[in-house]
Design a protein that fits this description.
It is built from six helices and twelve strands. With about 250 residues, the protein is α/β, with parallel strands linked by helices. Bound molecules: adenosine-5'-diphosphate and magnesium ion. The site of magnesium ion has 2 residues, from helix 1. Adenosine-5'-diphosphate (ADP) binds next to strand 4 and helix 1.
Length: about 250
């Protein structure tokens, strides 16, 4: 009998993808110390679409940066896909971000002198993925026909979808999106949300979507609420709606 847990390259199959234990993050010291996160306990399984809500300054971006291996916690542990980020050196963190993570930000950060396809292909090349994968990623966000356009010829929502394609071309198990619709209007914002929803549903990909827009919570499998650095709400949603049904 083999009672070892089954493993994939990303870690044991049955363990949560993301796990935070007693996580605290403080900036500065003495009188100017700010406690951005205080005592976070969190476990997120594979395949979940999680919306993280909270007012400005509540610690949402700090939470993303800790899970993304961009900053270390002050105390506690962060384990993602079997990697203990708190024990990892810079090299291991770089490899972790390369293999496990897609990041999407409020501002799209596309390279203006490269076409949509070239922006995505650049990342495909960095991770050794075949170039067809760049085209497939653009198709997956509904932009196959815009592949040869430069960012300046695309709308904000289209640029953000290129950024999502760029994050997905690595096929990461975890996608972190920090205010991805923060600078978009309702219609283009919905297209971006739909692309993120699809990215989660196709394959067992976990999406953590940070927003201060509580209307977006309706499409989540689970809603986390942050307040002053604490997790003040954690609710499962029984019937998430498609992005098209989100209104704000
Ligand atoms: P949110 O994304 O919810 O708006 P943040 O995680 O950016 O919140 O910030 C949480 C708290 O931590 C805020 O009080 C913010 O000012 C502070 N903070 C965030 N990053 C830094 C930093 N690099 N240096 C000092 N304080 C910071
Ligand atoms: Mg923020």
């Amino acid at each position: 009998m083999n009672d070892q847990p089954r493993h994939t390259a990303a870690g044991p199959v049955d363990s949560p993808l993301v796990r935070l234990d007693g996580v605290t993050k403080s900036y500065g010291s003495g009188e100017i110390e700010v406690d951005a996160l205080r005592g976070i306990e969190l476990s997120v399984p594979r395949g979940q679409f999680v919306v993280v809500l909270g007012p400005s300054g509540s610690g949402k971006t700090t939470l993303m940066n800790l899970i993304g291996g961009i900053e270390p916690p002050t105390a506690g542990s962060v384990v993602v896909a079997g990697h203990d980020l708190t024990a990892a050196d810079d090299r291991a963190l770089t490899e972790y971000r390369r293999a496990q993570l897609g990041f999407v930000f409020q501002f799209f950060n596309l390279i203006p002198t490269l076409t949509a396809l070239e922006n995505v292909a650049l990342v495909a090349e960095l991770v050794g993925a075949p170039e067809e994968q760049a085209r497939a990623a653009l198709d997956a966000v509904g932009l196959g026909e815009r592949a040869d356009h430069f960012p300046s010829a695309l709308s904000g929502g289209e640029q953000q979808r290129v950024a999502i394609a760029r994050a997905l071309v690595k096929n990461p198990p975890l996608l972190l999106a920090d205010e991805p619709t923060g600078s978009l209007d309702l219609d283009t914002g919905r297209q971006v949300l739909a692309a993120l929803h699809r990215a989660c549903r196709d394959g067992e990909r976990t999406v953590l979507l940070v927003t201060h827009n509580s209307a977006i919570a309706a499409m989540a499998d689970r809603v986390l609420r942050l307040g002053s650095g604490r997790l003040v709400g954690d609710d499962l949603v029984t019937d998430p709606v498609p992005a098209e049904a989100v209104h704000w």
